[in-house]
Amino acid sequence: MNQMSTPDFLSHYYEAVDGPFSNLSMLPLEKAKQILEEIRRNGNRFASQRSSDYLRKRLHLENKIRKLFGEKGGKPKLERPHYMILGTCPWLKGWYVNGQELQIKLASIPKECVSFTYGDSFPAMNYNDGKPYRGQVYTVNELGEVIQQYGLPQEWNPDGGGGPERYIEAQVWDDTSLKEYLSVLQVNTS
Predict the structure, then answer these.
(1) Whole-angstrom Cα distance, residue 137 to residue 170?
(2) Nearest Cα residue to 113 out of 58, 178, 168
(3) Per-position b or e across 95-131, b if 16+ CB within 10 A of its CB
(4) Do strands 114-118 and 9-15 pair parallel, antiparallel, or not at all (unpaired)?
(5) Rounded to two decimals, what is the model's pTM?
(6) Fewest C-beta atoms under 10 Å: which of 30, 54, 60, 113?
(7) Least confident piece of the model among 18-22, 139-143, 156-160
(8) Ramachandran class of 33: left when φ > 0, alpha when ψ lies in -120 to 50, beta otherwise
């Protein structure tokens, strides 16, 4: 594979009306279920396709990622992560009615507080198709090697024709670098 550079920023995609980092799994379970049900009823977002047991699966998956990240020396400060993408993935903006994109320099997030999955964490951690990056959690220090070996999904699979890998997902386990954006979240989830 050709020499590829690792993007030096993370992107976060969100619905304009909700603001950035409005993560269902950070809410009390009953509140999260109500919001998910409303999204499913409206049917106008990608998230409306999620199954009724999505939240249970999401929480289990986050626990697994947090544990694996800790085993690699990660020091998550949050119980539940904020989700971002390494580089950009315009396809994700289309998940929303009025999709917005926020970019943050990767260097502004403590290395011990950000983990990665090759592809969205759901297929990355759940599919059992023999691909070597399934069930794996990566650190910042491993990204260069991962990209050299497998490439950036946004480049080799932008339309999803090559499988579910369309981006490298980042799980940010610390609020410090995101504080200026979180006030919007607090207003919209209360």
Answers:
(1) 10
(2) 178
(3) ebeebeeeebebeebbebbbbbbbbbbbbbbeeeeeb
(4) unpaired
(5) 0.81
(6) 30
(7) 18-22
(8) alpha
Entry field: residues in the chain: 190
Q: pLDDT (tens digit, 9 = 90+) per residue, 69-121?
A: 999 999 999 999 999 999 999 888 887 788 889 999 999 999 999 999 999 99
What is the secondary structure of 123-182 as a DSSP string?
Answer: HHHH--S--TTTT--B-HHHHHHHHHHH--HHHH-TTSTT-S--SEEEEE--SGGGHHHH
Tokens standing for residue 116: 């990665």
Q: Domain locations in the chain?
A: 9-188
Task: Give the E-state strand segments of 19-157 in sequence order.
Answer: 82-86, 99-105, 114-118
For residue 186, name the pLDDT band (cuts at 50, 70, 90): very low
Reply yes or no on whether the pLDDT at 26 is more than 60.
Answer: yes
